[in-house]
Amino acid sequence: MLYTTTTPAAKRAAFRERLRSGELLQLPGAFNPLAARLIQDKGFDGVYVSGAVVAADLGLPDVGLTTLTEVATRAGQIARMTDLPTLVDADTGFGEAMNMARTVQTLEDAGVAGLHVEDQVNPKRCGHLDGKQVVDEPTALQRVRAAVAARRDENLLVMARTDVRAVAGLATAVARAKALVDAGADAIFPEAMRDLAEFEAVASAVDVPVLANMTEFGKSELFTTTQLADAGVALVIYPVSLLRLAMGAAERGLDALRAEGSLTGQVEHMQTRARLYELLDYGAYSAFDTGVFDFSLDDNLHG
Predict the structure, then answer these.
(1) Is 108 a known active-site residue?
(2) pTM recorded for the entire structure
(3) One of 45, 91, 108, 119 is an active-site residue; which one?
(4) Is 37 a catalytic residue?
(5) Which residues, including other chains, have CB under 8 Å from residue 203's CB and lie 6 or more apart?
(6) How confident is the model over 202-229, as pLDDT tens digits?
């Protein structure tokens, strides 16, 4: 009922432990807190909060327009609704090194288990679009060092994302990944890899977990978990998938409503009221209310 009883510290420690297991962890992207509940209910390993999804939810493109407050608020709303670890997209840290430090502590206070910071110039753009620009290596390393130095819980995962593959090629991406690990990154997110061999090249070059971004309509094929695990990948995110599925269904429903004058033909595709109530745990709220609201007027009607 209400929020998870698992503390952020416990979720961070559990996340670290799972990463040491060698299993491939799947983190679907949650576009709202209810989606996070569903991700947990379906047995996934964690929840991802995408910067692109936070922006899209606000009706904005993913070009660095969202603020730390907006991202931290949504990440906190999601993290408090699930026992699973939440990994959040911190973009470029919302500024320079001092801003990065504040970003880390703000997201830590929001209850996330980890965050990733990237090496794009600010304002950034979607990692699978052409025309990206990256900062020089000293600036990228400074961001990671600032993030690591700012955290107060040593189990908060600081992941470094590099977009340099699309700008300067795979060899440069591998070299930068190694430098980011040397700067203190706990994990590496190589964005926009072209194939499994490229993921394997990065994973072989570093001794920290590597994340794969399986976003639809991107630069990579949608590889299976078996393929990714065989390539040495430790985590996989599906950042925008649930939002795309939900908005696709919403658009089809609205089209049907305009064309047919009612949603009768769409009801079979909808989540039922019973299933929604199950996810929201209505029963626990009812039991709680019954247990505490026991005031009666029976003994106060005379006199």
Answers:
(1) no
(2) 0.93
(3) 91
(4) no
(5) 210, 231, 232, 233, 234
(6) 999 999 999 999 999 988 899 999 999 9
